[in-house]
Amino acid sequence: MKQAQLQRLRNLLSCPTAPFREALVMAEVESQLQSAAIPYFYDQHRNIVVGVASEKSYQKLLSQRSKEPVRVFIAHMDHPGFHGVRWLSEKCLSIKWFGGSPIKHLAGRKVWLASDDGLLVEGSLKKVVLRKDKRAIQTAEVVLDKPLEDKKISALKIFGGFNFRAPIWQSGKRIYTRAADDLVGVFAILETARQLQAINKRNKKTKRPPFIGLLTRGEEVGFVGAVAHLESGFLNKATRPVVAVSLEASRTLPGAIIGKGPVVRMGDWRTVFESGGLKVLSDLAVKLLPGKHQRRVMDGGSCEATAMTAWGIKTIGISLPLGNYHNEGYEGGMDCPAHRGPAPEFVHLDDIEGELKLCQGLMKASLAWDDPWQQQRSRLRKNLKSYQRHL
Ligand SMILES: [Zn+2]
Q1: Please, how many CA atoms are within 13 Å of residue 94, restricted to the half-sphere of its CB?
Q2: Distance from the alpha carbon of residue 78 to the mean position of ligand 1, in angstroms
Q3: CA 220, 234, 282: angle at the middle one, nearest 5?
Q4: Whole-prediction pTM value?
Q5: Measured distance CA(296)–CA(303) in Å, rounded
Q6: CB-CB neighbours of 292 under 10 Å
Q7: Cys-Cys link to 123, which of 61, 142, 167, 295 (CB 3.0-4.6 A)?
């Protein structure tokens, strides 16, 4: 990966984020989009729509007469974390957790705290109460390392998550970070947009198929931003074909090994994805990343592809195998002193590069979206011919 590109990844992964508290990620996204002169707008729920400058041009694109599907790449800007609820004293904040989390070795663990203006201070957890289903933290108290300079700041403006030696660091080709899920997906969308912009500038005649990036909010508590976007009806009112591509980092599983390439995600915990679109993606992966991609149902969690599918949008997915999913130290590694206690997530640089290749591949014109099984049919017909006399 080129230095400048790696720096953009580092900048994104350094952004503090939590469900509904994505402002610092948004600021970084805006700065990257503006530096590359890529159009974007905010929908009414503050999801970012990349690739078009307004609602009007988004609607126009979705109603153009064309057989070429609009690719809607989707990734979320949040990561499990907490919101402040109220001050118990100058140095103690009661908090509510949003999304998944580790459930062991929590007392005394370090957290960071931020507001929409940036990082504020560090602290540590105490009095952790788990949810009834025991699958994540529900509430806790955070003891601040030192009182805040701004004593008037409302508890409700504060958010946070688990803290490690740094927001991001590298060890060999491994990238350790607070929130690879799903800021690496956001990165992949921004890089794909950037590359398309460069190609279109160089070569004004060969138009690439239309690209949309949908960067959503509040995914970790049930795809809230994505559902709000779907409910506003843009995609369902499209009169030309649409294919949604969910980009996620998902819990590593047998057959989805970290460092062995991006995963053609055939489904998630809830559902399988659209078979025709998957055939296109899978053929593309064989061509672009021979021996360097993986293929499986990633059923360690569900993702925004579920929401897209539920609203009738043709959806496929690419996953990055992720270590220590939702900061739960399943795989261990650096800064993980206790199995299944808080730990940084980690991903592999080769997998990210593979994912970028696949995204770019999906933007080629005239892929077989219309009839993905045609080659397979002719192979099977040939086979039928050779065995027909036995029938
Ligand atoms: Zn995710």
Answers
A1: 7
A2: 8
A3: 65
A4: 0.96
A5: 15
A6: 15
A7: 142
Q: Is the dihedral of CA 325, 329, 330, 331 positive or negative?
A: positive
With both helix axes pointing from N to C terminus, report the angle between 275-288 and 349-362 in degrees, rounded to the nearest 10.
Answer: 120
pLDDT tens, residue by residue, 110-160: 999 999 999 999 999 999 999 999 999 999 999 999 999 988 899 999 999
- Taking the centre of ligand 1 as the mean of its atom positions, its distance from the CA of residue 141, in whole angstroms, is 25
C-alpha 182 – ligand 1 centre gap (Å): 5
Q: At 55, which amino acid appears?
A: E
- Residue 167 above 80 pLDDT? yes
Instruction: Write down the pLDDT at residue 303.
Output: 87
Within the chain, residue ranges assigned H as helices are 3-13, 23-35, 55-63, 180-202, 224-231, 275-288, 304-310, 349-362, 374-387
Cα-flanking dihedrals φ and ψ of residue 101, to 5°? Answer: -170, 165
Average pLDDT, integer, range 304-326: 94
For residue 154, report the distance from its CA to the centre of ligand 1, in Å. 28
The DSSP element (H or E) to which 111 belongs, if any, is strand 110-115
Q: From the CA of 76, how far away is ligand 1's center (Å)?
A: 7
Rounded to 5 degrees, φ, ψ at 209 are -60, 160
Could you please report the per-residue DSSP string of 271-314? -B--HHHHHHHHHHHHHHSTTS-EEEE-TTS--HHHHHHHTT-E
Q: How far is the CA of 220 from the centre of ligand 1 (A)?
A: 7
CA distance 45 to 107: 35
**Ligand 1 centroid from CA 381, angstroms:** 41
Please give the Cα distance from 276 to 369 (Å, whole number). 7
Q: Cα(177) to centroid of ligand 1, in Å?
A: 14
What local confidence, expressed as pLDDT, does residue 143 receive? 98
179: nearest Cα among 191, 157, 162: 162
Tens digit of each residue's pLDDT (9 = 90 or more) over 71-104: 999 999 999 999 999 999 999 999 999 999 999 9
**How far apart, in whole angstroms, are the C-alpha atoms of residue 30 and residue 50?**
10
Residue 210 has pLDDT above 90, yes or no: yes
Domains and CATH numbers, the chain: 3-79+170-373 (3.40.630.10), 81-164 (2.40.10)
Cα(295) to centroid(ligand 1), Å? 18
- pLDDT above 70 covers what percent of the chain? 100
Contact 79, 17 (CB under 8 A): yes
